[in-house]
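#struct-pred
JK: can someone run the complex with magnesium ion? inputs below
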Amino acid sequence: SSQLAQLKTLEQQLQFLDTQISFLNADYGHLQQEYGMLQQQYESLHQTPLLIGQVVESIDAQHCIINPSTLQQNVLVRVSGHVNPALLKPMTTVACAREPSYAVHKILPSSNEQNQMMVNVESRPDISYADIGGYDSAKQDLIEAIELPIKQPQIFKQLNIVPPNACIMFGPPGTGKSLLVKAVANACDCTFINISSSQCVQKYLGEGARMIRDIFKTARDAAPSIIFFDEIDAIATKRHDSAGEGDKEVQRILLELLTQLDGFNNAEHFQAEKIYDYDDQETIRRKLNKNVVKVIFATNKPDVLDPALLRTGRCDRKVNVDLPTNREKRLIFQVCSRKMNLAKDVDFEVFVAKNAKISGAEIDNVCIEAGMCAIRENRFIVKQADFERAWEQTVGKKKIERRQTTC
Ligand SMILES: Nc1ncnc2c1ncn2[C@@H]1O[C@H](COP(=O)(O)OP(=O)(O)OP(=O)(O)O)[C@@H](O)[C@H]1O
Ligand SMILES: [Mg+2]
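RT: done, structure tokens with the ligand placed:
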């Protein structure tokens, strides 16, 4: 009978466990549903555009203050459960959701990693002065403003004048501005940072001002260096009163650029540095080049630039790179065709004498096109006839287009 009683209690226990299992199963189903819902919510939060900002201060595990790049003031936001609050150090870039309420959702890679993609430090562009035909005065200007101060700062120190910080190159498209800057960077053998201004506005909307700061910091860390802002009109257009959000962003970038240009004035450092009689040339150069950053701007629309950028003290040298004169055209033809296999009858004088208003890029184009003509006829020698045809195809065509548009 005792065994019977034992069996009964065991049966009861089994029943109890069975009900428990069914309860747990039901619970599991509910939780699964909830998990699915949360997952969906999480996905949707990730899909809605997130706001970018920097952490100002981390308050506790659930809250922190951030400075969104599109807003003026700081905001207090929640930190999502899946973000590790220990990583929310000041100046970390984070992404925040706006809906349903502001909350930090993602930690973005640190600014340096991000900028590495953008600030491309080119060690040495392989273009020399000899690759550029003509433009001796522009070359001379750049050598005086950039190359000489970097290579032989002691000359300036002895004269007690501070070499220029920045210079701007302007002239019509295709006249070799970018090329000249690369040649200078090559001759200087220093850090060369090549920035395409329009790209930096588009790519880093909302982050532009900070990026300018980072560019200058990178440059200073790797001094002596040259920063080249190509097509600067994308950033430095005249400030006007009625501005949309995009314009405001561009203006913020410009203001930051102006601040940076003023901030790291080389003058104080240059004058403060002491040179002793026993210092050798290399030491002097190193001392004077510490923190030296030269900035070169290039544009083909100088008239739309903000005058604040151009005022003396910021941009001391203005290098005009105009369309080539006849003498320069001759030189550019020679440079562009120097590696080509030319027939004896080739005479560029014919084209120079046409007095066409063409740029160096167009001359380069004529030479390439002439080469193509020869290739089409299976020749290894480029003849005058090829150049004539190429001229007709490139420059002649352009003339016709012009006439049509003016009609
Ligand atoms: N003086 C020159 N000597 C040799 N090649 C030249 C010269 N000027 C221009 N070129 C040719 O034209 C091309 C374009 O030149 P570059 O990019 O420097 O023009 P740019 O003045 O910067 O024009 P943009 O204002 O449109 O940027 C060069 O890659 C080069 O092949
Ligand atoms: Mg250019």
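RT: quick notes.
The chain is about 50% helix and 15% strand.
Residues 5 and 111 are 74 Å apart (CA to CA).
JK: thanks, will look after standup
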